[in-house]
Inverse folding.
């Protein structure tokens, strides 16, 4: 009796694990909304993807001096935004002059 119970348990386990080993679904997060950093309000930038008030203030300050031309221009003029941060923000919906980075 113990042998047949162990065999049944093993068979159920194989069936369950076999069902999990099929094709994995790739989940790509879509941006909840897009935001143009050339025109957005400071509080919206601060809330966007957790940038915070200091980075938002720096973006708005640089934007008032001269409009951002591209993502590279944004990254160059705002010190706390590096290439990795720009790509991450772009994937989440950040735009500069209507274009993604």
């Amino acid at each position: 009796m113990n042998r047949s119970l162990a065999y049944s348990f093993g068979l159920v386990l194989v069936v369950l694990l076999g069902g999990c080993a099929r094709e994995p679904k790739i989940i790509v997060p879509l941006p909840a909304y897009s935001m143009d950093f050339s025109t957005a309000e400071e509080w919206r930038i601060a809330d966007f993807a957790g940038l915070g008030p200091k980075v938002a203030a720096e973006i708005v300050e640089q934007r008032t001096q001269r409009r951002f031309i591209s993502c590279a221009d944004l990254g160059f003029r705002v010190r706390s935004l590096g290439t990795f941060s720009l790509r991450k923000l772009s994937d989440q919906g950040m735009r500069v002059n209507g274009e993604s980075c």
Q: What stands out?
A: Strands lie at 35-36, 94-96, 99-100. The chain has a mean pLDDT of 76. Residues 47 and 67 are 21 Å apart (CA to CA). The longest helix spans residues 2-20.
